[in-house]
Amino acid sequence: MAMRQSLVLILAAFLAFAAVDVEAVVTYSSRLIQSDFQRQKMKLGPKYDLVFPSQGSKTMSLGNDFGWLHYTWIDIGTPNVSFLVALDVGSDLLWVPCNCVESAPLSASYYSSLDRDLSEYRPSASSSSRHIPCSHRLCESSPNCKSSKQQCLYAIDYFTENTSSSGLLVEDRLHLASASGHTSNTSMQAPVIIGCGMKQSGGYMDGVAPDGLMGLGPGEISVPSFLAKAGLIRNSISMFFDEEDSGRIYFGDEGPATQQSTQFLPSDGKYMTYIIGVDACCIGNSCLKQTGFTAVVDSGTSFTFIPNEVYERIAKEFDRRVNATITSSPGYPWKYCYKSSSQEFPKVPHLKLMFPLNNSFGVHNPVFLVYGIQGVSGFCLAIQPVEGDVGIIGQNFMTGYRMVFDRENMKLGWSPSNCQDLADGKRISLSPNGTPSNPLPTNEQQSTPGGRAVAPALAGRAPSKPSVAPTCLVPLQFCYLKLLPLLVLLHILVSSFPLDTGTIHG
């Protein structure tokens, strides 16, 4: 009896010790998890220095066929499908032609610059695709939904007359390449919201962005917003534009320390798009009075628009300084066009935009060359007037620059660039294996009248819910190891004594 009592006391003491020990293990592990969550909430820096499309950072303008915009190849879904998308910092949503009801032709035979057919996205063919329901907090069409489980619709009207895209919102994987420090480029995937563009209209039916458009604006639904929110990049992007109609795009690039910059301006207290304030415009060595204006910076607009009154002052001073005969150019949208030739091309007056703190932006080539049968036959001042107080700094003004859209510090940065080098002269290969697996079309672009210009798109935002990583569980296997000696002792105790059934023997 005394032995039984002793063993019971030992067992009770051991149980108490084990309970405390298990509680300590669970508490310690919980604290580790809580600490990890806190670290994730802190700004500990991005995972990668630079991120770019999986087929390479290179972009290219395909001329009149594609509205003079810059394009790049991207891969979406599982298995991945390639799309040639226009790059537009004036809108937010990434959309591609999908389950098409009404869209532009996708056959290469329709475009002189392509040597392969374009693609159509089918969510049902991608194992990583999922629908976005109306219950999603950022589904703008939710008030019109009959059920919270109904799939979210989207409809975007762009500034170009009767130009729009509409369809359904889905989430799928965007294939990317990343570079960090001196490590080699690696492949990665990120979940993003995609517009399944079932119906397009206007300019999108006439060859502009026939295979989709990637919105790069500050809205939550844009690709850079998803990448920054996931901690993959700094909240900044850069686009390079060179004189040869090619360029580059990088997610996470904040630009060099030597770049000039100016702050973005809010609209009604919100940063809906990239708006800047120009203090003055200068032609040659003369800065003109009353030439300040507000403008949207937009790579999705081929050429530049300036408010009427400012435009007239600039154009008249340009006309006064250029040594060429003004002429009409049917088929071109510009008022100030001049006769010229390849042999006798006049010196074009220098155009410069001035910003606060004496920052200046020199426009490398403000003119558009007009070609005839024997080559260059003239040129036009590639600026158009626009009603209202807000202009548009289009893609033609960005030529020769590394344009940095720093969304974290809400500022626009710019520095001269040949599109080949990054900070500290470091070169980044075009894709993880160093060469583009799907190079951009290289056919000579068309220099014909009637070039289409896609106007900026101040589209609504309907971003997706960020993917949630599985929560880590407490490693209870350590607790089980602590209890092993206790279980052995309990087994010995039970087997050492006969089972007491409570029966009294006479």
Quickly describe the structure.
It is built from four helices and 28 strands.
Give structural notes.
It is a single chain. With 506 residues, the chain is α+β, with helices and mostly antiparallel strands. The protein contains four helices and 28 strands. It has helices spanning 2-41, 223-229, 308-321, 477-496; strands at 50-53, 58-61, 70-76, 81-88, 94-102, 130-131, 153-157, 164-179, 186-201, 213-215, 236-241, 246-251, 260-263, 275-278, 280-283, 286-287, 293-297, 304-307, 326-327, 337-339, 351-354, 360-363, 367-372, 375-381, 383-386, 390-393, 401-406, 411-416. It has a six-stranded mixed barrel with strand order 3-4-10-5-9-8. It has a four-stranded antiparallel beta sheet with strand order 16-15-21-22, with helices on one face. The chain has a four-stranded antiparallel beta sheet with strand order 19-20-24-23. Helix 1 (2-41) runs antiparallel to helix 4. The longest helix has 40 residues, at 2-41.
Radius of gyration: 31 Å
Into which percentage range does the β-strand content fall? 25-35%
Count of DSSP strands: 28
Identify low-pLDDT runs: 14-43, 423-488, 499-506
Please tally the helical runs, counting DSSP H or I stretches of 4 or more residues.
4
- Largest sheet properties: 6 strands, mixed, barrel
Portion of residues within helices: 10-25%
- Give the overall shape: globular
Q: Kindly report the spatial arrangement of strands forming the biggest sheet.
A: 3-4-10-5-9-8
First and last CA, distance: 21 Å
SSE-based structural type: alpha+beta
How confident is the prediction overall: mean pLDDT? 78
